[in-house]
Amino acid sequence: MTATHSPTAAASGANATERFKSDKFAGVEGTPPERVSLLAREVLEAVHATIRKHKVTYEEYNALKSWLISVGEDGEWPLFLDVWVEHVVEDVATEHRQGNKGTIEGPYYVPDAPEQGARGSIPTRDNEPGTALTWTGQVTSTTGAALGGAKVELWHADADGLYSQFAPDIPEWNLRGTFTTDDEGRFEIHTVRPAPYQIPTDGACGKLIAAAGWHAWRPAHLHVKVSAPGHELLTAQLYFPGDEHNDDDIASAVKPELLLAPQPSGDGETIEYNFVLDPAL
Ligand code: MBD
Ligand code: FE
């Protein structure tokens, strides 16, 4: 890897910011003024209360100002919000579900990954590094019905902890694929085990983590979106037992029901994990 092609916080942040703008910006138009006023006022009141409680100084206020400016300059608003805020939004959004509740999406989803059928391999490079992983599963409804034709979109980091389209020099759709369940709702996916993910240390989020003396790690994880007509979209992540950061994920996105149970098999591992979707409201 040459110096000009090393992953940088600013480059991956810029990509995540562009991604968010093209997929999700339209949604912000319709928020009613009463709701904006209520939420903005309460968040600001919480900030004011913290300032009074801890007698925040002008030096600290200016440190905050300069840090907030750098979050934008580094394109790290998607990263910051998804790491430290999204998990609560996700909890609230999925509270009512009888099927899988899931967890946060994070900043690195890209829609329309290549279709691979019900059984196949996620796109990889030749000799993609990492332990081979064969994942079998089934998608059903809370009604008990098998959901044929359901979409399982899978995306994850490579064995270096890097995501295609956000880190340099990785083929566009590497480790990103869409699978469609068979008539019984079943699928079989061949991929490799991802590595744990470290928040970039050279950007604004990394600066906050270092200044606060926190660690910068998420445990290794597989991201999925599972969807079927007439059902709520499920966004989830699956985790591997024994990862040292399952208990202190910087993004607070691990739940016990999202832990896999890999079994050794040949020169790789197999996993079984099923999804239950709630009918749409
Ligand atoms: C990730 O890979 C991720 O999944 C989240 C939630 C935040 C930062 C990086
Ligand atoms: Fe991730």
TrEMBL record:
<feature type="domain" description="Catechol dioxygenase N-terminal">
    <location>
        <begin position="34"/>
        <end position="100"/>
    </location>
</feature>
<dbReference type="InterPro" id="IPR015889">
    <property type="entry name" value="Intradiol_dOase_core"/>
</dbReference>
<keyword id="KW-0560">Oxidoreductase</keyword>
<protein>
    <submittedName>
        <fullName>Catechol 1,2-dioxygenase</fullName>
        <ecNumber>1.13.11.1</ecNumber>
    </submittedName>
</protein>
<dbReference type="InterPro" id="IPR050770">
    <property type="entry name" value="Intradiol_RC_Dioxygenase"/>
</dbReference>
<dbReference type="Pfam" id="PF00775">
    <property type="entry name" value="Dioxygenase_C"/>
</dbReference>
<dbReference type="InterPro" id="IPR043029">
    <property type="entry name" value="1_2-CTD_multi_dom"/>
</dbReference>
<dbReference type="InterPro" id="IPR007535">
    <property type="entry name" value="Catechol_dOase_N"/>
</dbReference>
<keyword id="KW-0408">Iron</keyword>
<dbReference type="Pfam" id="PF04444">
    <property type="entry name" value="Dioxygenase_N"/>
</dbReference>
<dbReference type="GO" id="GO:0018576">
    <property type="term" value="F:catechol 1,2-dioxygenase activity"/>
</dbReference>
<dbReference type="InterPro" id="IPR012800">
    <property type="entry name" value="Cchol_dOase_actb"/>
</dbReference>
<keyword id="KW-0479">Metal-binding</keyword>
<dbReference type="InterPro" id="IPR000627">
    <property type="entry name" value="Intradiol_dOase_C"/>
</dbReference>
<keyword id="KW-0223">Dioxygenase</keyword>
<feature type="region of interest" description="Disordered">
    <location>
        <begin position="96"/>
        <end position="130"/>
    </location>
</feature>
<comment type="similarity">
    <text>Belongs to the intradiol ring-cleavage dioxygenase family.</text>
</comment>
<feature type="domain" description="Intradiol ring-cleavage dioxygenases">
    <location>
        <begin position="104"/>
        <end position="279"/>
    </location>
</feature>
